[in-house]
Write a structure and sequence with these properties.
alpha/beta; four-stranded mixed beta sheet; 2 domains; single chain; S-adenosyl-L-methionine-dependent methyltransferases; Rossmann fold
Length: about 240
Amino acid sequence: MAPVNSIAVSSTTDSPTILQKAVDLATKLGLPVEQSPLGSEQQWRLDCSPDGLHLLRSANGRITCRLIVDFVSGKNGFRHAHHCTVQQPLARALGIKRGHRPTVFDGTAGLGADSWVVASLGCPVTMCERSPLLHALLADGLLRAATATAPAAAVSARVRLMHAEATAYLRNAQHSYQVIYLDPMYPVRQGSALNSLVLRTLRDLVGDDHDSGELLEAGLAVATERVVVKRPRGAPPLAGLMP
């Protein structure tokens, strides 16, 4: 997990509005504002720019990874345009079908890709993310989506984003959800998808989900229809609980 003292907020523009946004975000997260280029000491940076909030990672003064939550274009946009049907595996696993759009709680929101697909299919979705940095990226992505196009605005209106520990929230939830969806970090395997740059960056930033078993138990107590756990092929059941 990235140490807090290695993270700062910056802005690469002279726009007073965006500069103020950077200051406000830094204050909210309790992080310093840094205008100097990324160096060897500052390995992470939340950068406010005209096209959105970026998470930058550097090594030896060179940017090695740049993350932004973009629900409208890129991979998310393509997935929404070409694969957003009730026949896809995710929709079938969640029990989405004609005439039935369950309420879904995503307890491990991450970068929000799966939640966006589920909301695109018409389901009310609550995205829960405990990392304040990922929560900031998600909030920025949803805000931009809400003003991008009419269809994207309609999808974003079905999404509720919250910053919380999902296990604690579910244990004290005042209402139930029909479906709980979990996609926890799991140990890296040689040659697995988790070796991708983005997912390795996320792991280094937020660490492993060592409490995923407790989250599963909390979800089972709240879900009225099902709990769906996303796991890699061949991985053991989460917390030893068989489907």
